[in-house]
Amino acid sequence: MEARNDEKWRVLIAEDETLVREGLKAMLSSDPSFEVVAEAADGMEAIRSVEETKPDLVLLDLNMPKMSGIAALRNIRKQSETVKILALTIHEGEEYVLDVFRLGGNGYCLKEASREELFLAIRSVLAGKPYASPEILDNVLAVYMGGKPEAREGPLTHLSVREQEILKLIGEGYSVKEISEYLFISRRTVEKHRYNIMKKLNLHRTSALVCFAMENGLVTSFRKGNTNRVEAAVE
Length: 235
Known about the structure:
The chain is an alpha/beta fold. The chain has two domains: 4-144, Response regulator (Rossmann fold); 161-232, Arc Repressor Mutant, subunit A (Orthogonal Bundle), CATH 1.10.10.10. The protein has ten helices and six strands, in the order βαβαβαβαβαβααααα. It has helices spanning 18-29, 43-53, 69-79, 94-102, 115-126, 137-144, 161-171, 176-183, 187-201, 206-215, and strands at 9-14, 34-40, 57-61, 84-89, 107-110, 131-132. It has a six-stranded parallel beta sheet, sandwiched between helices. The protein is globular. The chain starts with 8 loop residues before the first strand and ends in a 20-residue tail after the last helix. The model is unreliable at 224-235 (pLDDT under 50).
C-alpha cells in the first residue's frame, strides 16, 4: 500500500521504553512509506504530540507513566476522529482488547509480534481495516459478532477507566494537585475519585493504594524521591 498522494504516512510512536521506541523508529524508517514525526514517553505527551503533529497513525503502548495508554487513547480519539490508533502491548486479556476497540482504537497488536506481522497490522489499520493479533482474535470477533466473551473477574473490574487512571497516578507518587493538573480536573474531583477507589477496593491508606496499583500492573515507574514517602504521596 502506497502512502497517501505519494506522501509518507506520518507516525507517532508512544512508548515509554527507550529501546523499544528506538527499535520501532528504526523499523519504520527502513520503509520509505513512513515518517516518524514524533515520539512520546508517556500518555500526556502522546496527547500533546497528536495535537501538535497531526499524525496519520499512533502506535500506542498501553503501559505508560503519568497516563495509561487506554486513557490516552480516549483523549486522542476526542481530539481526532480520523487518526488511526494501533495499540502495542503485552496484554492478551480480553478486558484490554475490548477497552481499546470500544474507545475507538483501530487495531491491537502484541509486542511479541514479528516485524512482518507489525507491518501487516500497520498497513491494515491505515487501510481502514481493524486488526487484532491472532492470539486474541477470538475475543475481538466475539464482540463484532454480538457475542459475549467469557468475563474475567479481576481486582480492577469494578473501577472505571478514570478511576484506574487516577489510581495509576497515585501509585506513581503524584500529588492531588499534580493529578488535577495532568487530568484537567479539580482537586476536589480527584479527592472524590480517590475516596471512591478506596471504598470499592476496601483499602484505607494511601500506601495500600500504591501497593495495589503496583501489584496489578498499573505502575510502570515510581517518581524519584517518593519511594520512602508513599503514605504522603497524595496528601
